[in-house]
Amino acid sequence: MAKTKKQIIEDLKLIDLVVEVLDARIPISSQNPDIGKIIQNKKRLIILNKSDLSNQTENTKWIQYFQKQQIPAVLVDSVTGKGIPEVIHTIESIYDSTNYDSKGRIGKSIRVMILGIPNVGKSSLINRLVKKNIAQVGNKPGVTRQKQWTKIGNKIELLDTPGVLWPKLNEKNAMYLAYTGTIKDDILEITEIGYQFLQLLVKDYKANLIQRYQLQEENLNHIFSSRETTENEKILEVMELIGKKRGTLISGGEINYERVATIILDDFRSGKLGKITLEKIEE
Ligand SMILES: Nc1nc2c(ncn2[C@@H]2O[C@H](COP(=O)(O)OP(=O)(O)O)[C@@H](O)[C@H]2O)c(=O)[nH]1
Ligand SMILES: [Mg+2]
């Protein structure tokens, strides 16, 4: 069950360390804008989750980016459990490096809570950490239960329900969150989302596009070198190429653009378009 902001702030009083879960494909847009204010000066660990879906080179850069800010960060794939041992190890070393004497907490566990916006993989991460399916994954509403702590090893106690934060929703972030499926497709029009996403792919991930839909590079070059068509028409032409490959014609030989948009977005979300980081660190 989603905790209210008030409940999160209440729970935080019991917490020694906050694990902030971000989507490795969009580390900025998947971060709650008020996180600093909410957690104040609590210790913090960032998880770049879904790192199986993001670009490896960019992953490394993001880890360095957070570490430069003195925030430990770990790459995780909560579906397979890759990175989980490192998460536990990192929390334990934070515990070991903490002087609990002054707080009178020596010998006690470090108490941990997971925070993040919807869909970043908080429940999946909790399941992986406690190695059984106690947290509900997916979109089904949860059931209210009593606060429960799960012991992980002999140093960590994890609060079993995550704090659900809200995303920031300016125009740019909203698009990224729509691409990843965090904002539901019916709120923003699917064809528009797919169209804009394709624009981004053409710019940054052309090779992925060519490979997935078996496009000819010269066909793409031909489209983009034409002086007779607008940018808008060029993207629509690429949608048509993909649509033809996928047989998404409607009567009269027209391309079903909505169907093409759905295919591209589904392929991105399931990793079939390859490893794609949408938000990159500027050099
Ligand atoms: N590929 C991939 N999918 C993930 C990962 N973590 C979670 N997911 C998927 O993302 C969706 C949302 O996960 P969930 O744990 O319910 O997110 P929550 O809303 O933050 O609790 C589910 O379909 C998960 O299977 C990951 O590391 N890699
Ligand atoms: Mg959840």
Which secondary structure elements does this structure contain, and how are they paired or packed?
Blueprint: H1 5-12, E1 17-23, H2 35-39, E2 43-49, H3 56-68, E3 73-75, H4 84-96, E4 110-116, H5 122-130, E5 149-152, E6 156-159, E7 163-164, H6 171-179, H7 190-204, H8 206-213, H9 217-225, H10 231-246, E8 249-250, E9 254-255, H11 257-269
Parallel strand pairs: 1-2, 1-4, 2-3, 4-6, 4-7
Antiparallel strand pairs: 5-6, 8-9
Helix pairs in contact: 7-10, 7-11, 10-11
The structure holds guanosine-5'-diphosphate and magnesium ion.
Guanosine-5'-diphosphate binds at residues 49-50, 52-53, 77-79, 116, 118-124, 137-138.
Summarize the structure.
This protein has helices at residues 5-12, 35-39, 56-68, 84-96, 122-130, 171-179, 190-204, 206-213, 217-225, 231-246, 257-269, and strands spanning 17-23, 43-49, 73-75, 110-116, 149-152, 156-159, 163-164, 249-250, 254-255. The protein is α/β, with parallel strands linked by helices and 283 residues long. It has two domains: 5-164, P-loop containing nucleotide triphosphate hydrolases (Rossmann fold), CATH 3.40.50; 184-269, Conserved Hypothetical Protein Ylqf, Chain: A, domain 2 (Orthogonal Bundle).
